[in-house]
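FORM 12-B: Structure-to-Sequence Request
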């Protein structure tokens, strides 16, 4: 496959890279809201 026709779904580097980036972003957002509110993430969600 050429660079322009590579698959973007499934277990490919493109998908795994974005999965890792979004997971890191979610972790930072969760940590930031915990620091700002003083409540844990589960407590904020009502658990």
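FORM 12-B RESPONSE
SEQUENCE OUT:
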């Amino acid at each position: 496959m050429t660079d322009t026709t590579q698959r973007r779904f499934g277990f490919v580097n493109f998908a795994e890279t974005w999965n890792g980036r979004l997971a890191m972003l979610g972790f930072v957002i969760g940590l930031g809201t915990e620091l700002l509110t003083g409540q844990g993430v589960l407590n904020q969600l009502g658990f």
